[in-house]
Structure formats: structure tokens, C-alpha cells
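Re: your question from the hallway

Yes, I did run it. Sequences:
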Amino acid sequence: MTDRARERAGAEVCLTCGDVALPLRVVSLDADRGLARCAGADCHEETVEIALVGPVAVGEELLVHAGTAIARVGADR
Amino acid sequence: MRYVDEFRDAGLARALASRIASLVEPGRRRKLMEVCGGHTHTIYRYAIDELLPAEIELVHGPGCPVCVIPMGRVDDAIAIAGRDGVTLACFGDMMRVPGSAGSLQEASAAGADVRVVYSPLDALRIAREEPGREVVFFAIGFETTAPSTALTLRRARAEGVANFSCFCNHVLIEPPLRALLDSPDLDLDGLIGPGHVATIIGSDAFGFVAAEYGRPLVVSGFEPLDLLRSIEMAMLQIAEGRCAVENQYGRVVAGPGNAAALAVIDEVFAPRPTFEWRGLGFIDSSALGLADDYADLDAERRFPLAGARVADPRECQCGEVLTGAIKPWECRVFGTACTPEHAIGTCMVSPEGACAAYYNYGRHTRQREAVG
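Structure:
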């Protein structure tokens, strides 16, 4: 693969359209609004809807898709 | 990074590849379909297909939400974006999807207010911050994304954000899978199931694939080792003459799915009687519209739309690519008239589209050389 091809392929991935979900770590909570600030490995932070995963704690790892936590990441179910 | 790095280990990948190779019958071709566009992207990004024995062929399925959206719906979105005082918020990949007279990107260049958002919540924030504008969220995606849209609509209702609405194009995974499996030309030995859709609907929801169609299905994660292990599990079933739904992605997918997500989908959406899929035509009960209780937040009821059916360009063969009938490079315009920069078909737009995956990772030249 050429550098140009690799660059193009990596640069334009739309996380939502690709059905991609990322494991993010909870850094703070806004329990009243049902939201959490979560951070990724690259240190980016985003506000995440947590209604689908129930009460979460700071430090917990969540699978986030389109700004919504869709699962907790953890041991096999 | 936890849950990522350990699923990209090259040594383990080679070990899995060798176990897979031991499961094939020499000379007996096996076709496995990866349903999800995210899997297609991982396969080409990490060259997983090159680790597999020649007997295993991976066929790309219809699970890229951008690729299956018909042109008429894009035209409707562009018409909404062109209205005075309206802001259309959409996911990044939708910007370049061609409608019959251009894309949202071109509409934006011509003056329409189209904004890329990462989540429906971002679209709602725009509406809250700019009360003088009508903000319409262009919702697309399978069951993975539908709960996010539903929660945002529920939040808009609770917060009384009256200038927010949703142009809903959410689709469901089971009806197109049934349409594919019902095809008399179907030539598939097994399926790799979409892991993140299964997070919502549960791995049990795919039981019909094994029970009614006699094909093994393995719900898979998205890292390279996830996919290799899922391929191994599917091949093991085939080798042992078994046929079941198995869950490789147990670290996030539960058998029954996410009950809260399914409940909010039920509350906010209602199945449409029918919906058009690019390449598959109209499929009954295959998409979601807003439920009557949420009619006030429905852009289709707020704005008059043409709702016209627009045929795909004649030279475009996305339909055959989406059903696995042809490989992307076999399309007559692949890499020539149709490229990621100037896409004719949707499969070339999204990086998860099979054509874009082939093109971006330089597969077209290699495949043609192999054939020539």
C-alpha cells in the first residue's frame, strides 16, 4: 500500500457510519443530566450519554458510539 | 491501550491464521460474508484476507449505512438543507454521498447550512445555541446508532428544544439479511455478524440465520484478532458440520442485547411499512420512522418533501457489490470514473464501503494483475 493510500484510508473514517465504537474511560460525571465526560487513549475528551448503561463510576471503561455509551467493556458475558 | 493493543498482536494473528488453514479442505472453496462495513474496513486495513488460505473467500455484505441509502433520500436531505433558516446536521460520511443533482458537500458550497456532527447530541446542542434556526438532524445507521438518536429526541422533548427535528433514515439488520439469504443465487457458507449492532439487539437475535437458513454466524468484534478468531469459529462449525450462532465478542455483546436501548427504540420509533435499500430494492419493515408520539420532532412531517424514488446511475454497480455478486474491482467504473474523490456510487464514498476499502488500500491493481 502506498503512503498516500494509507493516509487517505486512515484519515476519513467516520466512526458513526462505520459502526465503529471506541472504548473510552469515564473522567467525570454529570449525573443530573445523565451525561459523562469520557477520555480516549489519544487524550481527546467527549460528552457521552450514559442512559443505556446505568450508573457508571469514574475510571470505568465504556464502549461509545455516536456520543452514546452502548455497553460496558469488561469480562465475557 | 487496553482492549485494543492485545487484539492486534502479530504473533497471535499468525497462530490463528495457521489454525484456520488447518480447517480448510484443500481445493474446497468456502465463502464467508462479513455483514458489517466496519469489518470490511478492518479486513483491508490489516490485510486479514492475505493471511487466509486461498480456499476462504470473504464476501462483503450490505452493512454500511451510508452505502445502502438510496439517492431519493439524499435528495430530500439536500432539499431540507436548502430551505431558508434551516441547518442540516449530519455525520461526516454523508457529505459526499451523491444525490441525483449533487451532494450535501456541493449544497454546502452553494450556500446551504450543512454541518458535520459526531453525534446527535452535537446536533441538539446547535439547536439549543441557535434558537433562531431550525436544526434538522439527518439520522442514519443501523440499530447501533438508533438508540443515540432516540435518546437525543427524548432529551429534546424534555428540554423543550422546539427548533430541533430529525430526518430519520435508521435501518434494521434482520430484513436485508433475510432478503440476501432468500436469494436463489446465494452462495455462502457462513456469516460474520455485526458486533456493534449485536451490542444493542443481542447475539440471540441472529438465531434465525442458523435455524431458518442453515448457515453458521459468528458475532465478531472489530480488531484484527477478533475477526481472525471469528473466521476460525465459523470454519470450525463448517468443518464439524455444525450450524449455530456463536458470540466471539463476549466482552461487550450479551445474548439478549441491551434492554434499555431496545426500549428507547420502541418508544421513539415505529417501523416503516417499507423502505428502499440501494442494491436490494424495497424491503418491508426494514427501517424506522418516528412514532406518532414524536411526530412534532419529525422533519418529514415538519417540511414538505418530494420523497421521490430516484434510480441509481446506469453505470453504477453498487447493488451487485452490496449483495456480494461482484467484487468492487469488477464494477465497470471502479477506479476510473468512480473514485473516492468523485464517487458515482455510495460504496466508494464511505471508507467502510467495499469499493473505497479496495481502492484506498491499493487492492484494485493487485487484483487485476492476479486476474490478468
